[in-house]
Amino acid sequence: MATDRAKPLPGTVPDEAFDVAVDMLTREQRRSRRARPVRKKTTGLRRITEAALHAGALSLRDIGCTSEDYLALDDQRPRTRGDCDAVARPCPYVACRHHLYLDVTGAGGITLNFPDLEPEELVESCSLDVADLGDQRPEDVGAYMNVTRERIRQIQERAQEKIEQRGKMRDWEGHASAPGKDES
C-alpha cells in the first residue's frame, strides 16, 4: 500500500506523532513555551579574539569613522531619561544600559538577546519605554527580553527579595543609630 508521505528518518518523530504530542500539551505548557525559537547568545570576553576586535576597528575605518568621531558619538548618547525623548525609535544607542538588544555580563561578556535581528528591527528597543507602558503580562515582558515566563517570574522574585532586604537594612540602621542608645 503506497502512501503520499515519505517515511520518517530513523530517530525522528513522524508528523502525526508530533501533532498528537502538541495536542496533548496542557494550556500551561503551551503558554510557557518560548515566544521566539532563537535563544540568547553569550560570547565570553576571552572568546572575543584580537582579530575580531581588529576587524571591528577596520570596519569603522572603512566607513570613514575615526576614533575621535567614535568618541564624539559616545558623547552624543543620552545620559538621562529626559534626553531620550528627542531620540528616534528604535533607539540607535545599543551601548546604553537600558537597550534591549544586548547585555554586558559582570565578567565582560556580551549577550545578544536577539541574535537573529538587527537593532533597528526590534519592536521595543528600550527597557524604559517598556516600563512607561505600565503593567505588562510576564509573557509580554519575556517577549521583549527574549526569555521565558518562568525566567521573568524568577527575576521578579529575586528583585522583590532585594527590595525587602533593603527595607530590613534601613530598619536596622535606623534602630542602631537611635538616639539615647548606649554604645559601650
SSE layout and pairings?
Blueprint: H1 15-24, H2 27-31, E1 41-43, H3 50-62, H4 67-76, H5 81-84, E2 102-104, E3 110-112, H6 127-132, H7 138-145, H8 149-176
Antiparallel strand pairs: 1-3, 2-3
Helix pairs in contact: 7-8
Shape: globular
Termini Cα gap: 95 Å
Order of H and E elements: HHEHHHEEHHH
**Overall strand count:** 3
Rounded to an integer, what's the Rg over CA atoms?
A: 24 Å
The stretches of 5 or more residues where confidence is low (pLDDT under 50) are 8-13
Helix content: 40-55%
Give the strand order, joined by hyphens, for the main sheet.
1-3-2
Taking the sheet with the most strands, its summary is:
3 strands, antiparallel
Category by helix and strand content = mainly alpha
Summed up, the helix count is 8
**SS strand fraction:** under 5%
Q: Mean of the pLDDT scores? A: 78
